Amino acid sequence: MKRRIYSLITAILMVLTACGSGQTRAESGAGIGHEISEPVAEVGKTESGTKETGQNAEPAHHEYEKMTVSYSEPMYGFSFRKDMEKTQTDYAAYYFETSIKEQERNACIEATDRMLSCIDAPQPEIEVAVLSQEFYDGVFIFGNRLYLSPQHWEAADYLAKVLLAGYGEWGNYGLAYGYADYLCKKAGLDGGEIDGDNQKAEALLPMSAPELYDLNLLCFDKKFVSSKDVEASKNNACLFVEDYLFSHSEAEFLELLSASGTVEGMAQTKEALEMFYGENGIEASLTEIRYQFGGVALDYGAACKYASFYIEKDWQDRFWKANPMVSENFLHEDYREVRKFFECNEGQMLEYQKLFGFDSYRNDIPITLANGKGMTGSSVFHVGYGVDNYDIHLLNVSSLMHEYIHSLMCGRYDDWSTLWKTEGFARYYSYKYDAYAYDFLNNDWNSSPIIWVREYIDFLGRPIEVRTDVPELWDILVHGCGFTDPNSSYESGASFIGYLSDQYGEQAVIAYICSDNEYNAEWGKSYEELVQDWNQYIEENYSQYSTNSMQ
Predict the structure, then answer these.
(1) Is 19 helix (H, G, I), strand (E, B) or coil?
(2) Which helix (H) or strand (E) segment is 131 a member of?
(3) Alpha-carbon span 225 to 336, nearest angstrom
(4) Given this model, what pLDDT does residue 12 score?
(5) How far apart are CA 319 and CA 301, in angstroms?
């Protein structure tokens, strides 16, 4: 009932209140933005079309300054350096590729200004960069600037993107969409409808899965959810914003929108949404994963408390056929699958930080899932120049925790050339909490044609449905190959780390790895003596079966 009363009040205010060109940025409390383009020192004056603000509309005049704009999408993506033309209004700065026609420019400026003029709260600096469809077919927000090609300028979907440019590119898309719909109606634009002809329902629409009540970016994308779920997401987002504005000011709502794009504020957004759903009889367990647009090269970006992920549009896990937890189009088509993956890895990253227990970590490490040209045949942890200048590049998700452990240990030890300390260490511990890697390797090895693995499993007399655990498989491989040096391979290093962990405990091994001492006084043994003990352990436990077929 309160929403209907509120809708009536809103309608009356729309008639009585003019929210247009008279309000300046100074009056609205706007801040100062950042200019990142380079002027070319040539200013031209273009006479635009008419503002459709009434029957006696006056011609609008916009002065354009030629600018050279440089733009790069994150993580080895699309980039350009291009001449554009800029104009500034009371509400936003606009950049247009020179081929964009005057009529298109005026339509963009008119609709955007009209919507922003209706915000009854302090406004940030917002910039909109419009490129031709032939040149740029993505959507990306960097800082306070939105990059996109011409589209329906009066649509709530477009205005939601503008709002994210102003209030945080990682912000919750549902909050931005619902508010854009509200502003469209307040400004008298026709974009305040759900999918054109379908008006917003009076009550929440059911979603096909509980996860879709998240109302984040992917819940509005038909690649990840059904058309019906997109319609329901839009409807429910509008109802949430309407309900929130009934009991809060617009400034408070915009604080919530800004907070939704941060690690700290995500919990606040969850709480507000869950309270709203609870009042409407819906139980929803919402995510704290945030998403953003990916531009041309990327499908989307995702962020958790410990890392930012960038997923290339044509990325495909190279081991998807052998990994029980990965589908052919993994991370590209099913939102529930996407949410499960990022939440799983956020939880695993937390467990590793607790395991290692160091004072500090880099918790914004970039992780790219891409099969780009020039990449090596494996996933990599890449260290660049400068403090904390490193990232992860993944060809398959089963390598994620291995590379993440490298990032946690970066700077903890200096000898990266010692294989067992680096790769053996990461190989052993990466299977402690890594569900995606553990299932992949266990499935792959237990069905392996590698003769010493098959021979040992047969020797144990285990039925086919009983698996051999991953750490034991490394020991089998070490014996089968005759490795006596922990630096022979990743697996021999992992086997050695596993032996030390069993003997002395994981925390003691972590401390030993981070130390430069070759002799451990507490253990009373040198590195050479520890290797001898490990060799003896392998011989005693795995020499009872023949490996003649390997010779």
Answers:
(1) coil
(2) none
(3) 9
(4) 42
(5) 22
Q: Which residue has the tokens 């490996």?
A: 547
DSSP-derived 3-state class of residue 187: helix
Per-residue confidence (pLDDT) for residue 449, from 0 to 100: 54
User: Which pLDDT value is given to residue 47?
Assistant: 36
CA distance 480 to 551: 10
Spell out the residues 6+ positions from residue 12 whose beta carbon is closer than 8 angstroms to its own: none
Q: Whose CA is closest to 501, among 511, 515, 491?
A: 511
Q: What share of the chain is helix, strand, coil (3-state, %, to 5)?
A: 45, 15, 40
Helix and strand numbers (H, E) in the chain are: 18, 15
Q: How many CA atoms lie within 13 A of 475 on its CB side?
A: 21
Two tokens at 337? 């699958």
b/e map 14-40, b = 16+ CB within 10 Å: eeeeebebebebeebebeebeeebeee
pTM here? 0.85
CA atoms 289, 295, 296, 297: torsion sign: negative
User: Would residue 357 be called left, alpha or beta, if left means φ above 0 and alpha means ψ between -120 and 50 degrees?
Assistant: left
Is residue 421 within a helix (H) or strand (E), and if so which, with residue range? none
pLDDT value, residue 467? 54
Which tokens belong to 454?
Answer: 């098959």
Least Cα distance to 234 among 189, 275, 285, 174 occurs for 174
User: Residue 414, class by beta-carbon neighbours within 10 Å (0-12 exposed, 13-18 middle, 19+ buried)?
Assistant: exposed
SS3 357: coil
Nearest Cα to 326, choosing from 315, 312, 337? 337
Residue type at position 370: A
How far apart are the C-alpha atoms of 463 and 196, rounded to whole Å? 60
Structure tokens at 176: 């931005």
| pLDDT profile of the chain (551 residues), mean per 10 | 46 44 36 38 36 48 92 82 96 97 96 95 95 95 96 96 96 98 89 54 90 97 97 97 96 97 93 96 93 95 96 92 90 96 96 94 93 70 78 93 94 83 93 80 60 63 59 84 93 95 95 88 94 95 61 38
pLDDT at 5: 46
Q: Which amino acid is at 242?
A: E
Report the distance separating Cα 411 and Cα 358, nearest Å. 11
**At how many degrees (to 10) do helices 425-433 and 490-504 cross?**
70
Question: Which residues contact residue 413 at a Cβ distance below 8 angstroms, ignoring those fewer than 6 apart?
Answer: 421, 422, 513, 514, 516
As a whole number of angstroms, the distance between CA 312 and CA 318 comes to 14
Q: Are 400 and 434 in contact (CB under 8 A)?
A: yes
User: Please, which contacts does 1-6 make with residues 24 or more away whose CB atoms are closer than 8 Å?
Assistant: 2/243, 2/246, 3/202, 3/239, 3/242, 3/243, 3/246, 4/202, 6/242, 6/245, 6/246
Q: Which one-letter DSSP state was computed for residue 213?
A: G
Give the residue from 302, 411, 390, 297 showing the smallest Cα distance to 346: 302
